[in-house]
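Let's sit down with a protein and look at its sequence and fold side by side. Please make up or recall a protein chain and show it to me in full. Label the sequence line and the structure token line clearly, so we can match residues to local backbone shapes. Go ahead whenever you are ready, and we will take it from there.
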Amino acid sequence: MSQTQRQQELYTEADAAELLNITVSRLHILLDEHVFSDGTRPPNLVFRPSDILLLEIWARNSKSAKVLKMPRR
């Protein structure tokens, strides 16, 4: 497999939003709902492929019975 065919190791917020076919604002909403529910989302996050997979699940259906939502603090 060539270097160009390999999966990226890290994705920026813009990369992640593009892969998920959502806006960066929508990405921030998903992160605030599911990960940073206490309002502490740091700027300029980077994501691994496994993060993108989880974000995809949340983006498709944020009310999935199989995914637990983090409680508000």
Summary: The chain has three helices and two strands. The first helix runs from residue 13 to 20. The radius of gyration is 13 Å. The CA atoms of residues 30 and 62 lie 8 Å apart.
